[in-house]
Structure formats: C-alpha cells, structure tokens
Design goal:
Keywords: Methyltransferase, Transferase. By secondary structure, this protein is α/β, with parallel strands linked by helices. It is built from eleven helices and 14 strands. α2 packs antiparallel against α10 and α4 crosses α5. The longest helix is centred in the last third of the chain and has 17 residues. Bound molecules: N,N,N-trimethyl-histidine.
Length: 330
C-alpha cells in the first residue's frame, strides 16, 4: 500500500519553532482556518490509515492492488530497461508498508531485473520498518532506503548513473491543490532524463456518492483519523482541544473533482496552545479545512502531465475504471 506516510513525524514534543508549530500558527490564523493533511500521519494516524485501507467503503487501495497485480508483467516491462542486465534504480516516493510495491518487486526479481529499490520517506520509522520487512520477505532484493524529502531524494539520485523508475502510488498526488500539484510534477520531471520513467497512481472520478462514502465511512474510522489531528496538537503543542466539540465533515464536489475534509467546531470555543503562547477562537460551526483528495479523469491526467513536460505512455486501469496507474516518460 502506499500507506504512504505522505509526510513527516516531527519530534515528540514540538518546540514553538518546530515545523508543526509554525504550520499551526499560520494555518489557524487564516480567515478560512486550515491544517495540512501531511500532519495526519503520526503513529496513531498511520495506524488509523491502515484501518481505513481495509474499510469496505475505501475502494482505492484494494482497487490499485488488483490493478497492479493483473498486468504486473506489462507494468514491470514498462519500468525496467530493455537490456536484461542493465542496472537501474526503482525509487518509491512515500513507500508506506510496501504491500502494493511488493507485487512489482517480486515481478522484477522473477524476471531477473538488475535493480536497487530506493524507498523514500521523511519518516525514518517508515523506512526502517519497510527495510526490515523486505530483508525477511525478499532477502535477495537490494534496498537503499532514503530518509529525505521527495525532490531532494530525486536530485541526489539523478547524479547516479542508470535509469530511474519512480513510483508514486496510492493517489497521494490527490492531496495537492492543483497549482501545487503542477509545481510538484514539474519538480519531479526536472532532474529526469528521457530514459527515466514514472508510475503514478490516480483515483478516478466515479459515482459521487461512492467517493463521498469512502471518506465518511459507517464505522467512523475516517472521522477518528481526521480528529486525531487535534489529538496530535494536544499532545505535541499542549493544546486543549475538547474532541467532544468537534465533528468530521467531508464532501465531494464533482465540478473540481475534490473531496474536501473539515473539522467542524460544534460550539463557540477558545483553544489554548502553550507551545505557541497563543489562543485561537472558533465560532460555532466554523471549520478547519484539513484535506483535499482530488479525483481525476484520463483527459485531466494527460493535460496535467503535458503541462509538466511528461508524456503518458500507458494507462493501466481496473475493469470498473475506479483507479489508474499511469506510466509517464519525460
Ligand atoms: C493517502 C492521500 C491517498 O486521500 O484517499 C484516506 C488519505 N484520507 N481517507 C486519500 C485519506 C482520508 C488518502 N491518501
């Protein structure tokens, strides 16, 4: 799964100048309060995300798993160099538990490909966990984990000879706002040569009700995942959010293709944050915007890629067209 920890876990107790503290101070000072979904993934958040991936309503993970499994030979062939023994690097951005990646790793190993797997994540715990599980499950695999930001890791790897095949699975790309997404894609493309390849996972537009259900499940796991952000601020910034006065709310807008998630203050309240030496006022029914999960179409993917200087080569999708993994060339 690209259980992707899309992001970092800063130190246990954040100092006023920590990235988290700065982000919160800035995000809660805007007219529309906002916090980034990248802070969902502390230990508890990562555990809740594992639970989300197993929910009956959350279709993306199992769909992408199936869609990587069936055409795995064709996907592996699109990523590896033609010459059987030519060495290359398989990079993965936000590797998570690697459940989906292991399909491709097994396929490449079985076909005798000569490659090094480079999982990249800014969480050292994520890299260590994945590396340990790979040593047991695929002892013949060469692994060079990198604890770094995605674009830094790419810049470092670009200086090494050989093809880079880069995986960015799980529709993690859906978390970016459109302008940030284009900037990210251009930054990804910049250090690549025409020999390199990208495989990016995109959740596709479909029945709006089905999409909405995936982000508002009947067991309340997604609600707990969203609310855990406040629990994290209580723990790491000493905040006093009263979780009984907050609700999870999510909606899907078929015009923009965005699922947007919010934390809703059910009453007027003041929250104190000692680590910032500040208080924040919330009116009744005021919201904090916490996540975007964009859904795509094939024409949108092609337009996005083209604008970033990338060429879609093969579009792999499942029978129901719920999800796509797209091979892109610089
Ligand atoms: C990990 C970003 C792909 O947006 O679908 C799941 C995170 N948020 N349920 C997604 C998430 C709420 C997930 N990604």
């Amino acid at each position: 799964m690209s259980t992707s920890s899309p992001a970092a876990s800063p130190a246990q107790t954040a100092s006023p100048t920590s990235a988290l503290a700065q982000h919160v101070a800035e995000g809660l000072s805007r007219p529309q309060k906002t916090l980034s979904s990248m802070y969902f993934y502390d230990d508890e958040g990562s555990r809740l995300f594992q639970q989300i991936m197993a929910l009956p309503e959350y279709y993306p993970t199992r769909t992408e798993f199936a869609l990587l499994t069936t055409p795995r030979a064709a996907i592996a062939a699109a990523l590896r160099p033609e010459a059987a023994d030519e060495p290359f690097f398989l990079l993965e951005l936000g590797a998570g538990d690697g459940l989906k990646t292991k399909i491709l790793l097994r396929e490449l190993l079985a076909s005798g490909a000569n490659f090094t797997y480079v999982p990249v994540d800014i969480s050292a715990a994520a890299i260590d966990g994945l590396s340990a599980s790979l040593r047991v499950e695929l002892p013949e695999l060469r692994v060079e984990g990198m604890v770094a930001e995605y674009t830094k890791a790419l810049a470092v790897m670009a200086t090494r000879p050989g093809r880079k095949a880069i995986l960015f699975l799980g529709s993690n790309i859906g978390n970016f706002l459109p302008a940030d997404r284009q900037e990210f894609l251009r930054a990804l493309a910049r250090p690549l040569t025409s020999d390199d390849r990208l495989l990016i996972g995109f959740d596709l537009q479909k029945d709006p009700r089905q999409i909405r259900r995936a982000y508002d499940d009947s067991q309340g796991v997604t609600a707990a995942f969203n609310l855990n952000l406040l629990r994290r601020l209580n723990r790491e910034l000493g905040a006093d959010f009263d979780l009984s006065r907050w609700q999870h709310y999510t909606d899907y807008d078929p015009i923009s293709g965005a699922v947007r998630s919010f934390l809703v203050s059910t009453a007027a309240q003041t929250v104190t944050m000692p680590a910032l030496g500040r208080q924040f006022e919330f009116a009744a029914w005021e919201t904090i915007h916490t996540e975007n999960s964009y859904k795509f179409t094939q024409p949108i993917i092609t337009a996005m890629a083209t604008e970033a200087g990338l060429h879609p080569e093969t579009f792999f999708t499942d029978e129901q067209h719920y999800f796509a993994d797209v091979v892109l060339k610089p």
